[in-house]
Amino acid sequence: MASTVGTGGLGYLYWMVAAREVPGIEIGTATALISAATVISMVANLGIGHMFIQRLPASEAPQWSRIVSAGLLVGCLVTAGAAGAAVVALPGLAGNFAFLTGPAAAAGLVATAVALTASTLLDYVYVAHRASHGMLWRNLSLAGGKVLALAALTAAGMTTAVAVVLAWTVPSLLVTAYTLRRGLPRLRPGCRLRGTGVGAELPFVRRSLTGHHLVNLCQAGPSAVLPVLVTARLGTAENAHFYVAWMTASVLFMVSPAVASALYAERTNAAEARSASLPRAALVVLVVIGLPALVLFLFGGRILALFSPAYEAGGGLLLKLLVLAAIPDAITNLAVAHWRSQGALARCVRLNLVMAAVCLTLTWVWLPSAGIEAAGLAWLAGQTAGALGVAGYALRRRRQRRLSALRRLPSGRTPRVPRPHRPSSHPAAFPGRTALPFRRQTRRSARHTRPRSRSWRVP
């Protein structure tokens, strides 16, 4: 949780520096490239992170090394291939992505996508071992490095999209290299990452691809695709306003996925399954996002004005819509983590598919007429539909449990209501009080089961 909050705060500082030093059109281009790289990384990591959560805690050092090596190698290679395909396809699909035809932008897209995949998979390694301290220093170092790199590049006179992308990507690559060299041996003594044994792990990758990966794509995909849709429909300038408002509200959207991942990781470990309960996770999310959500809803315009007055005018209403969507978003994230821990992956996929379809379809239809606020309305509509689906399923399950309990009773009988406890009248039960007068209880005569007279007999 500290990692999520710290990363969100430093990310806010990063984009504040970018908004003050880099022109808006350049920020729009950089955010479009970063958003496209995020979508590519999300699609191409193949659900390997959840395979790490399931297999790493109980693995010996040689097997642990093979699992991590194969997962990182396969994930990064597939990401690089997918990014190369996107460089070729995106400019033809949307004219606003024509900047990818340049070699610098193409190389930046591939490097950023690979860095995101490696960093995400390494985070899952730490989550699998519940090593929150390692994840904390990694993410804080990465976020702090981005801020320092951007400040150094803008001070040197670089005020283009290249500076924003370099400051985003280079610290991620450096922290990843240090984690591979120093962090993993401390986390798992005796591990040695190698490129051998990849073939033995491919069946496990295939299983995660058809299960958890589909859940991840449907759950987190819309949030990554929205900036891409805004760029394709409205252009990079409008995407800059959307991305700043989205980044400001993302502090709320990062909490519930982090708590949901922790809930799933704890329940995967049998020793900690009882301590990880859904009500406790919901309480943590409510406590963490309650006050920030209230502040953003009431003073969101002033916060956006810290970037520039143009961002306040362009994204104030959008920010309010995104804050309102944080409540149903938390409900759906926790519900998916709960169902995933029970093995109900098909139910998770169905829920996330409904939310993704509602959100992305409405966004594509409404953007030309309503502007960037259409993305916020569509996001709110999709999350609300998912929360209503969760509530409907919970009510139906409750009704089924009550009906099954009634069916287990003997026919014609209703559940017996326990009688209230009557306090004892013995003096020991109430020290210092006199005993109540003893009342003799007489037993009532049983009710006759046959007539008193014998006139019913046949003579």
Concise account of the structure shown:
The chain is an all-alpha fold and 459 residues long.
Question: Would you kindly provide a written description of the structure presented here, covering whatever features stand out?
Answer:
The protein has 459 residues and is mainly α. Helices cover 76% and strands 0% of the residues. The chain contains 15 helices and no strands. α1 runs parallel beside α6 and α14 packs antiparallel against α15. The chain is globular and about 80 Å long. The termini are far apart. The mean pLDDT is 83.
Highlighted features:
459 residues; mainly alpha
Task: Compute the number of strand runs.
Answer: 0
Largest sheet: none
Radius of gyration: 30 Å
SSE order in H/E notation? HHHHHHHHHHHHHHH
Mean pLDDT over all positions: 83
Beta fraction of the residues?
under 5%
Number of helices: 15
The residue fraction in helices comes out at: over 70%
Indicate the low-confidence ranges by residue numbers: none
Beginning-to-end CA distance, first to last residue: 92 Å
By secondary-structure content and strand pairing, the structural class works out as: mainly alpha
Principal-axes shape call: globular
